[in-house]
Amino acid sequence: MTSTKHDVLVIGGGNAALCAALTAREAGASVLLLESAPREWRGGNSQHTRNLRCMHDAPQDVLTDAYPEEEYWQDLKRVTGGITDEALARLVIRDSAHCRDWMRRHGVHFQPSLSGTLQLSRTNAFFMGGGKALVNAYYRSAEQMGVEIRYQAPVDRLELRDARFEAACIGTERIEAGACVVASGGFESNREWMRQAWGQIDGAWVADNFLIRGTRFNMGVLLKFLIDNGADAVGDPTQSHCVAIDARAPLYDGGICTRVDCVSLGIMVNRQGARFYDEGEDFWPKRYAIWGRLVAQQPGQIAYSVIDAKAIGRFMPPVFPGEKAQSLPGLALKLGLDERAFVRTLEDYNAACRAGAFDHAALDDCHTEGLAPPKSHWARPIDTAPFYAYALRPGITFTYLGVKVNAQAAVHFSGKPSSNLFAAGEIMAGNVLGKGYTAGVGMAIGTAFGRIAGTQAAAALREDKRAAA
Amino acid sequence: MQPLEALAAEARTLAIGAPLPAPGEAEVARQMQICNACRYCEGFCAVFPAMTRRLEFGKADIHYLANLCHNCGACLHACQYAPPHEFAVNVPQAMAQVRVLTYAEYAWPPALGRLYQRNGLTLTLALAAGLALFLLLAITMKATLWQQLPPGGFYQVFPHDLMVAMFAPIFLFALLALALGVRCFWKDISPGDRAKDAPGSAVSEAARDALLLKYLDGGHGQGCNEADDAFSLWRRRFHHFTFYGFLLCFAATSAAALYHYIFGWSAPYALASLPVLLGTAGGIGLLIGPAGLLWLNLGRHPLHGDAAQKPMDRGFLALLFLASVSGLALLAWRDSNATTLLLALHLGVAMAIFLTLPYGKFAHGIYRSAALLKWAIERRQPSHLQLEA
Questions:
Q1: DSSP character string of A173-222
Q2: From A40, A115, A132, residue closest to B78, measured CB to CB
């Protein structure tokens, strides 16, 4: 069975896919978009996002001050430890400076940074209503412009010939198109693939203790297909945007509200009741993205953020109430931790705290002395009942293993770009993000490369028609 | 939470006399806990910024937030936790379910709060009673309903003083009941704050927000949601037609009262007179507004609001519409045989509206305005939370 041929086929239904579909349609192409999820779950991980990291040289509507290209680039270089492609990264950064007018034209609204996120008011433009509102706006615009949209349409393989796209297949259905944009996400929802990537410790699969913050539909089917069929891969399958989230979060789609923001106000202990990293190394917004991986490296992939009454009202309220006890041994009992080890860790920490002028809004002088690992800032004795603790597990937002692309978003096969197969979004984010994360950069990559891929797919088609004529 | 601790908390609550939350209130508290950890919807309306000033949601907070909610639907369509997500967050619906509890709980006298339980029936009975009363009265007075009246004969059917004696006490009672209800509501949601001590800027802001329906603009000016995730300004427009139409009709009645008592001019008044002009404009507003709101209500997304309240919402709109239709018909055929009948119908509908004013949808405007005033005061005060790291 072969369906009507479209000019451009977009595989995926999140931000990058929609940006590609809209730009290809704007360039005059007929476009079919295939979303694997049903309508109510459409949008992939984009439905959980909230902002876009934007370069700007002067204050703009919802953005304060300036965030020049060089600073953005340095931030990206720092969080990725240099594992990035500077040319592609700068492409993303520059696009973020002027994509918002286009986004607005397609119905996206922006708002100033949310309460509790003042630190992002300079760098990140927030979507009013969050990512799902953005996704809804793009779908509405796509429908109005005549983009054909199909839900519950999971493509299982592509037909490629000499690195050129010929058709996509859903079971026995074959869908031809002149050009294709693959924006079908990473593989974080695929439990088996995650198991293989992280391996076993003491006979237990590490990834079995992970939670997926986003969609359940990112099975990595096309990512795997492309890598198996000669596309060049980038990135490490264990690297991802991974934060420590409440262990009680649902397995999928827990989204933003499952994060717990009190780590820097207290201490983190592992299952053995021992500390393992400097909780006060830097401001929480600059460190939240490292804790998922840190917890993943602890026994049983679990850790506990412990605070006392002094911290209440100083961090974003978590979705689930913390365990609460009037004494530290009582808290150990509730957490099921070894009481002696737990209390000793707390006592050692409390004794090592050097009193200073506590200021959570600055890198203050409250620190520990003679403690390993140290707590560099905001170190105050945990001594005021009631005590609270939150069990945290690694929460995967999206994986970084992807296909190699060039500045035209063309997928590379053995070092050569395809002339009509393009990739955007998480499936190629690893080109820019080798590791680490900084807020709003995922949407910046998806928007920039989605727009490039849509434009290039429409252009590739014109090129083909010209050659045929 | 541990069972023992839960029991202890319950015991404490009972000891201090705070009533336990009703199921609808507990649902709002549950959802607010999720929303407060997300906050994506802060730009849509006042509910979410008000929420972020709190860490816990007691009964008073819940009723305050519920009445601040305009049921615009924006946060439902934008919600990553909306059904079918297992968190099943539907703020507009949960808030709507609490609002009807507010109206019932603060109704005065308290026993009449029960009229909210079957509000469709309440309105129907009130309408039946109103119509029966005036039809019987007309028959008694005139022996027939089908007869042209002599010029200036309105009061031959229903003497002026009789009408005043019937409507004035009912109207004043409605005002009293609503005032006593909202006074209790204010005391609960704003303990220690006296409304009359509110800064002038807060009062004028609240008035503006209520009169312009600021929170039906979606936060971006494109409006609220109706059948789907697209935005529309039509609800706001139709509400303006309804509300200002109602006010114009009220102004028409007031002008007529002035004519009667000050100038000694008797009804019916000339077409170009102030009461007729105001009443006609208001009547047209009350035709377009309720009809439009009803049309939107019929097409609303099934997850919006509380389906159980549709009889209350639609019944109130129907009454307003009937009042307007009968009033305009009376104007059009006031010199025909139908005058007596139309007059009886119009007065019967008006009576039903005034009887149910404190026990129907009308109450939403009173509690909403109080919540808007509370928000205007609250947002001028510093937050006691220090969430910025």
A1: EEEEEEEEEE----STT-HHHHHHHH-EETTEEGGGG-EESS-S----HH
A2: A132
